[in-house]
Write a structure and sequence with these properties.
Blueprint lengths: L12 H12 L12 H4 L3 H14 L7 E7 L5 E6 L2 H18 L16 H14 L2 E6 L3 H4 L2 H11 L3 H11 L3 E2 L5 E2 L13 H20 L4 E5 L2 E6 L2 H17 L10 E4 L14 E3 L2 E9 L6 E9 L1 H14 L9 H19 L5 H22 L4 H14 L5 H4 L6
Parallel strand pairs: 1-4
Antiparallel strand pairs: 1-2, 3-7, 3-8, 4-5, 6-7, 9-10, 10-11
Length: 415
C-alpha cells in the first residue's frame, strides 16, 4: 500500500496510526454509525488508510455526533457528544498537531489535559496557594462545553495556528450535526463543543487561555489561580480583594459568552491556626479533594493545631464505598480470593496513588471497609461463625501472600 503520495495537507500515515493507537486505549462507546473497534479492526490498515487519504487531501468531513447523557452529582444530567471511532482518530491527529505548536504558550498553572501536566500537580499548587492566601474564589462555569462561542473560539484558533486546513477541520467539527437519543437531528447554532470529543479538551483549554488565563494575568496580576480544564480556583489575600476580583471575573465571563453558576460559585475562608475569624464558608472541593480546616498533631506529638488541608472528599468516599460494594459479587463463594484481588487491585491502585497524597486518614478508613467486605466473604465461603475467626483467617492469607491486594502491599490494614 503506497502511503507516500503527495497530498495538500501535511498529514502522514504515521500520524494517523499513532492517533489510532492513542484513541484505541480510550472508551469503547460507539458513534452514530455503531462501528465498534472489533469491526474497525477487521481491516484496520485499510480503514486507517481511508482516514489518512481524506484528511491529507482536504476531503475529510465528520459524521454527526451521537448525544448521550450521564448523571451529575447534583442529580441533573450531563450531556456528552460521542463521535464515531473514525472521527475520534481524525480529531486526535489534528489535536496532536496543534498541541505540539501551542501547548508551550499555555499558562503554567493550567493543568488539565496537557502533556507533562497532571491533576496531582494542580492539587499540590492549590494546597500551596491556600497556605499563602486567606481567601479562595471557588468558581463554577455554567454549562461551559455547551456554551463556548464558536466565533470567539475560531478567533483563538486563528491567533495561534496559521494553517488554514487546521482551522477548516476545527470548523467542521464545531458545526457537525448532533443526533439526540430520540433520533432528532439538531445544529449547534454557533455554540458548544461536544464533551466527549477528542479535540474538545484542547479547544476548551485554548478558549479559556484567552478568556481567563491571559486576561486575569494582565488585569489582576496579584491573583494566584489554578485551572484544570473549566475547573478554576483563584486565591486572594483579603476578603475585599476576593469580592472585587469575583465581580471582575463575572464581567469577563459575560463578555466572552459564559456565566458563573451563582449557586456553586463562592468565597471560601482558609481557616487554620493562624486565621481564626468566623465565616460561613471554610471548605471547597477541587479534583476529588476537599480543602477544609482539620485537627492535626504537632511533630512533637504534644499539641493539636488546626490546619487547612486537602483530603478525599465525602462525595468520593461514598462513591468508593459504592464501587467496592457493587464491583465484586460478594455472595459468590465459588470464586477464590485471587479473583477478588484481580478485580479490585486496579481500582485500589488508582485510589491509593491518587488520594494517598495527603491526609490518609479517610483513605485508611476506606481500606478498612475493603477488609470488612473481604472478611464477610470469607465468613460465607468457609462457613465461619465467628467474626474474630474470619479476621484471623484473613490475616493468615495476608501473611502467606502479603502483596495479593494492593493495599496490603502499600502497608494499609496490617492486621
Amino acid at each position: 500500500m503506497n502511503v507516500h503520495i503527495t497530498k495538500t495537507v501535511p498529514i502522514t500515515f504515521k500520524m494517523v496510526v499513532d492517533a489510532y493507537q492513542k484513541v484505541r486505549q480510550g472508551g469503547k462507546a460507539v458513534g452514530i454509525d455503531n462501528e465498534s473497534w472489533a469491526t474497525f479492526e477487521i481491516n484496520v490498515e485499510k480503514n486507517l488508510y481511508v482516514i489518512w487519504n481524506r484528511l491529507a487531501s482536504g476531503s475529510y468531513h465528520p459524521q454527526p455526533v451521537r448525544e448521550t447523557e450521564i448523571p451529575k452529582r447534583d442529580g441533573k444530567m450531563r450531556t456528552l457528544g460521542i463521535p464515531p471511532l473514525r472521527d475520534r482518530i481524525a480529531q486526535c491527529v489534528v489535536k496532536d498537531y496543534m498541541e505540539c505548536k501551542i501547548d508551550k504558550d499555555f499558562h503554567q498553572h493550567s493543568y488539565g489535559y496537557r502533556p507533562m501536566k497532571s491533576s496531582k500537580e494542580a492539587i499540590e499548587q492549590v494546597r500551596q496557594n491556600c497556605y499563602r492566601n486567606n481567601w479562595v474564589i471557588d468558581m463554577d462555569i455554567s454549562k461551559f462545553f455547551d456554551e463556548i462561542d464558536h466565533v470567539l473560539l475560531l478567533k483563538a484558533v486563528e491567533k495561534v495556528i496559521e494553517e488554514k486546513w487546521v482551522i477548516l477541520y476545527v470548523k467542521r467539527w464545531l458545526t457537525a450535526e448532533v443526533v439526540t437519543k430520540d433520533g432528532t437531528v439538531k445544529m449547534r447554532n454557533g455554540k458548544g463543543t461536544p464533551q466527549g470529543g477528542v479535540i474538545s479538551s484542547l479547544l476548551a483549554n485554548l478558549f479559556l487561555h484567552f478568556a481567563f488565563d491571559k486576561w486575569i494575568t494582565i488585569h489582576h496580576p496579584q491573583v494566584c489561580f489554578v485551572r484544570y480544564a473549566d475547573d478554576i480556583v483563584a486565591h486572594c489575600p483579603t476578603k475585599t480583594t476576593a469580592e472585587e476580583i469575583l465581580q471582575s471575573i463575572k464581567g469577563r465571563m459575560t463578555a466572552v459568552g459564559l456565566r458563573l453558576n451563582e449557586e456553586k460559585t463562592k468565597l471560601v475562608y482558609c481557616k487554620d491556626y493562624r486565621r481564626r475569624e468566623q465565616h460561613d464558608n471554610v471548605q471547597f472541593e477541587f479534583l476529588g479533594y476537599s480543602y477544609q480546616p482539620r485537627a492535626r498533631i504537632c511533630k512533637t506529638g504534644t499539641k493539636m493545631y488546626t490546619a487547612f488541608t486537602a483530603e478525599i472528599s465525602q462525595h468520593n468516599q461514598k462513591k468508593i464505598r459504592t464501587i467496592l460494594k457493587e464491583t465484586v459479587q460478594w455472595r459468590n463463594t465459588e470464586m477464590g480470593i485471587e479473583k477478588i484481588a484481580e478485580i479490585l487491585n486496579p481500582k485500589l491502585r488508582g485510589w491509593i496513588n491518587y488520594y494517598g497524597l495527603y491526609s490518609k486518614d479517610k483513605l485508611t478508613m476506606l481500606m478498612r471497609y475493603t477488609e470488612q467486605r473481604i472478611t464477610e466473604w470469607i465468613r460465607n465461603k468457609y462457613k465461619i461463625t465467628s467474626v474474630k475467626a474470619s479476621y484471623e483467617k484473613l490475616n493468615r492469607m495476608r501473611q502467606a501472600k502479603p502483596t495479593l491486594f494492593y493495599h496490603w502491599e502499600k502497608g494499609y490494614c496490617k492486621g
